[in-house]
Design a protein that fits this description.
Layout: H1 2-33, H2 36-43, E1 46-51, E2 58-59, E3 65-77, H3 87-94, H4 98-111, E4 117-123, H5 125-134, E5 141-150, H6 157-160, E6 163-165, H7 168-173, E7 182-184, H8 187-191, H9 193-197, E8 201-207, E9 213-216, E10 232-234, H10 238-247, E11 253-259, E12 264-271, H11 284-293, H12 302-305, H13 315-324, E13 339-340, E14 346-347, H14 357-363, H15 366-377, H16 385-397, H17 420-427, H18 451-462, E15 466-468, E16 473-476, E17 489-491, H19 499-511, E18 529-535, E19 543-550, E20 557-563, H20 573-586, H21 592-599, H22 604-609
Parallel strand pairs: 2-10
Antiparallel strand pairs: 1-8, 2-3, 3-4, 3-5, 6-7, 8-9, 10-16, 11-12, 11-20, 13-14, 15-17, 18-19, 19-20
Helix pairs in contact: 10-20, 13-15, 14-19
Length: 610
């Protein structure tokens, strides 16, 4: 009997121990692992409010404010704390329907019953003032202060970009962001998001049964301070940017202007453009839909993404390659009788003949560059067309063509330089030669370049053979921080000695006598060097193209202008570039007759005619 009694005592003791272990495990799960009970309890007396830092401001190169912040109010809800309330009055205050409130509450509950969610974004100051007086009637609701962006200059939309709410993909990939947070979507707002956004803080408050804040929890010992975003100083000249946008009104195309000695982008115009304030606040979604459906594509960043045949502006590259490969000299002359006569031929306009290399740039002779190009590709030392084409392609790519220049802005495209593989597929291997691809001689055919790449070409010639990565960043915070990649020059494969001939040819194109193609771009007192181009467009009227830099010595600005469906480079692109140069170097435009002609021109009609 004693043995049975002892066994029973052990069994009972074991059961008691197991019960206590089970209770302990359950308590551990409730208190440590499962936070819903803890959140429910603390949520009745504590409110955690995220303190969003003010996003960094953006200034132009001269200190002009381009982007600042305005106050906005988000109505937050913690579904678990919500009790029955007067929905009619609530909806009247907010100016929304009961159906809207019901749907948003369902979404909030689906997200989390214990964590705050945004019920209504960006309340107006008037709605906020009324709601704040009566918020005690609505347990579970509170207002959180946010900031929205404002663009006082109403320009440079494609450069600056805009800010929008994060989506599920961003939330899952980056733990910093929570539902309802904002992030830079495109432009510099996106590139420098980490610097501009700052760091969020948290304030913990005691609230009473009426949802009213009674004070800081534990005297703020558990609060964390928000860290302000860093200010961004960019390379853009706001006045030049705005002036360029004005000149391009009622026109389609792009302009990029660069400071050659640094690679700093002075202006990057896309036309048509839009007021960046349209993509701020609650109207953003509807405004975006309208802009996206516009047939002239105002959201498309033509400065960095549009690819055009460079046309005759590309002749300066072929001239440099010919000089480097010793297949042409500065003294080499070719006759021109109005066309290059071999094969299908290439037409040319009327000009004096024969021309040497400098004169060929001055008058933009097509025949001259058909000879130059074929002599490069067919150079006997290369041993064949593929080898000659490879040498030519390597030279071309050293100018930054056919690849991204890695500007500090998203969505840049790299343009097109055709490959041997492409021609072998298109014509079959051995089925093509220098005459087959002759259109490359005058910047046509399979070539594609962005306005940024063409402006970079102008800067490279201005620098006599090197360029700096084009960029927008001038400084962060109060300093002049720049990434190392923006300080390192890139050299082309062409010896610097050859550039003086190209510079002289471009100078004469603007400042020479009869036959000079860009005399309309001349500015009294400023030595402008430029090259016109007419970019053949298989989908409609030709594009007007011009590249230039000034002054001739120690140049301060280099730029490229593309005006779609506008015809000859000298008609529209060259005068626009000339006005931009005058505005930047002198601060004012004196040739008002010149300016008025451009401002009053509506070239959209040409697109509509097509």
């Amino acid at each position: 009997m004693q043995t049975v009694s002892t066994d029973r005592r052990y069994i009972i003791t074991g059961i008691v121990i197991l019960v206590f272990v089970a209770i302990g495990i359950r308590l551990f799960h409730i208190q440590i692992i499962d936070s819903s009970y803890r959140m429910s309890a603390s949520g009745n007396v504590l409110r955690h409010i995220t303190e969003y830092p003010a996003r960094g401001l953006i200034f132009d190169r001269n200190g002009k404010l381009l982007v600042h912040n305005t106050v906005a109010y988000d109505l937050m809800v913690v579904p678990h704390q919500v009790s029955a309330f007067d929905t009619v009055e609530f909806c009247s205050i907010l100016g929304v329907s009961q159906e809207f409130i019901e749907n948003e509450l369902k979404k909030a509950k689906k997200h989390s019953s214990f964590r705050p969610s945004i019920l209504l974004k960006q309340l107006s100051a008037e709605n906020y003032a009324v709601l704040q007086e009566k918020l005690f009637k609505y347990p579970g609701f509170y207002v959180q202060t946010r900031s929205l962006r404002a663009y006082p200059e109403k320009s440079a939309a494609h450069i600056l970009g805009y800010v929008g709410e994060v989506d599920d993909r961003i939330i899952h990939s980056n733990p910093y962001y929570k539902m309802g947070d904002y992030i830079g979507i495109c432009g510099l707002e996106n590139t420098y998001e980490d610097e501009l956004r700052g760091k969020k803080g948290v304030s913990i408050y005691l609230v009473d049964v009426h949802n009213r804040i009674k004070g800081s929890y534990a005297d703020g010992r558990f609060d964390t301070l928000a860290v302000l975003g860093e200010n961004l100083h960019i390379t853009i000249d706001a006045d030049l940017q705005k002036y360029g946008e004005t000149l391009m009104q009622n026109k389609i195309g792009g302009i990029v202007a660069i400071e050659p000695s640094t690679g700093e982008i002075l202006a990057a115009i896309t036309s048509p453009t839009y007021d960046p304030n349209l993509l701020v606040g609650r109207p953003r979604t509807e405004n975006y839909r309208v802009l996206e459906s516009d047939t002239v594509k105002p959201l498309f960043n033509r400065a960095l993404m549009a690819m055009y045949p460079p046309g005759s502006t590309f002749k300066v590259v072929n001239a440099l390659i010919g000089l480097q490969e010793n297949t042409v000299t500065p003294q080499t002359q070719y006759e021109c009788y109005g066309r290059y006569p071999i094969g299908r031929g290439v037409g040319c306009h009327s000009h004096f003949s024969p021309t040497n290399l400098i004169e060929s740039i001055q008058v933009s002779c097509n025949t001259y560059y058909c000879n130059v190009f074929r002599n490069i590709i067919d150079k006997p030392a290369f041993g064949g067309v593929e080898q000659g084409f490879t040498a030519w392609k390597n030279h071309v790519e050293s100018f930054g063509f056919g690849k991204k220049l890695n500007v500090d802005q998203p969505n840049e495209l790299g343009g097109i330089v055709p490959s041997i593989e492409f021609y072998n597929r298109y014509f079959r291997k051995g089925g093509w030669n220098s005459l087959t691809i002759l259109s490359l001689a005058i910047g046509q055919g399979e070539l594609g370049a962005t306005p940024l790449q063409m402006a970079n070409l102008a800067a490279t010639i201005a620098n006599r053979g090197e360029y700096y990565t084009p960029h927008y960043l001038r400084g962060l915070g109060d300093g002049n921080f720049k990434e190392a990649r923006f300080l390192m020059p890139h050299s082309t494969t062409i010896d610097s000695v050859w550039y003086s001939y190209i510079v002289e040819g471009m100078y004469r194109a603007v400042n020479g006598g009869q036959g000079s193609t860009a005399r309309i771009a001349a500015i009294k007192g400023i030595e402008v060097c430029g090259k016109t181009g007419t970019s053949q467009n298989p989908h409609g009227k030709d594009h007007s193209v011009f590249i230039a830099f000034a002054p001739k010595e120690n140049p301060k600005i280099a730029l490229a202008v593309f005006v779609e469906n506008a015809g000859f480079g000298s008609t529209w692109a060259a005068p626009i570039a000339s006005l931009m140069i005058e505005k930047y170097l002198t601060g004012a435009v004196k040739r008002t007759w010149h300016e008025n002609r451009i401002l009053n021109a509506n070239l959209l009609d040409r697109r509509e005619e097509e």
